[in-house]
Amino acid sequence: MRKNTEMFHEASKRMTGGGSAGGRIHKALGAPFYIDHADGSHVFHVDGGDFIDYHCGAGALLFGWNHPGIREAVMKCMDKGFYMNFDSQYTLEFAELFTKLVPTVEKIRLTNSGTEATLAAIRAARAYTKKNLIIKMDGHFHGMHEMIWFNGGCGTNLDEFGETRTVTPAAAGFPQDSEKNVRLIEFNNINAVRHVFEKYRGDIAAIILEPVNYDCGCVPSTAEYMKQVRELCTKEGILLIFDEVISGLRFRPGSAQGFYGVKPDLSTFAKAIANGFSLALVGGKAEIMDMFNPAGPVVCSGTSSGNLMSVMAGIACIKMALEPGFYDKIEEIEKNLCGEIDHLFRKHGIPGHIRSQGAQFAFYFGYDDPRLDYTLSETVKYYSPKQYRNFTRACLAENLYMFDGGGKPFPQHNGFTTAHTEDDIALTITKIDKIFSRLAQR
């Protein structure tokens, strides 16, 4: 990868760390994976080579690269003047379509990123309840801001009730004592929820969670757990916030909240709702959403919020998600791809398995029992980051793009798109069969 290496060398002179974002570095390469262009399910490397993409924009690409319907919407936007800072008939159309797709959301407010959306949701929750504390699940990611970015998901340091003994910022530069506004508990542990609700009764504004924890691989909640959390929140007058930044649009209409049959008070969405264009939102019950300005005292605004290009891309995405058979295709790809890869673990005697949900999946190298996935403290005991590193390096050699962010004791989430073809899947399985054969001999 000569040109890739040269580009990284030059970028390191002018860009911090050599990339436009910290997460651009592929740890198996020690550099970004520079591409020339992308189309459908494939990315094309600057040094040549056509790679089947299974990172998919960190979960943003549900419809594939350069989708013709989204491309058409973007070109129409160009003809309209690709304006921002104005609403239009398209803003209204998007709102109408989205609340049809996710009927538990009564009103929305558009933002540019998932980080902005979760920040706004937490502010609204505090303003609405007039309480301060936020309960967060250890290992769940809700954006890089001081409202909620605490602990990195180590799955340790829990007391006997499932509450994290110490809450620490996930990055440097946080204000002193900012951690006092957040409490962390173990995911999928209803007793931990009961414990903190009782311990901090009268102080809790909201509990926030990913219905499926993709930041630690692919960890779903159980239907019973979600139902009980909803019942406890209702009983205690605590708002329930679903972070569907990744899970949004990935499940049959209604997203994860429709899948689980649970209505949160507030939700946040981003990524796939506009196939990677800068569009996100916070939505929920009308009386809570009316806390946002100009109806209420919570300011949530931005120059580029609801910009025309992102909104028109979003309209195209939601229309496709509402088409009959759309989710049938996703589930068929998941069955063929992930089912076969899971079989390959057993065929080659490699300790591990794959878990998937909503067009996202994760490789759990190191242990066979998928029941351990539900508890992060168990996952980090047995998961093998080294084996995953070896796997991703071998994938690159076979022209399969799996991402390795590195440095975490739990799996990296990958995914697929509706643009992945039967030939893509068949070729991928053949290549992973070959890779697993080599890994098993080490």
From TrEMBL:
GO terms assigned for molecular function: transaminase activity
Alphabetically ordered keywords of this record: Aminotransferase, Pyridoxal phosphate, Transferase
CDD domains from the UniProt entry: OAT_like
Any Pfam family: Aminotran_3
Keyword set includes Ubl conjugation: no
Family listed: Belongs to the class-III pyridoxal-phosphate-dependent aminotransferase family.
Name used for this protein in its record: Aspartate aminotransferase family protein
Organism phylogeny: Bacteria, Bacillati, Bacillota, Clostridia, Peptostreptococcales
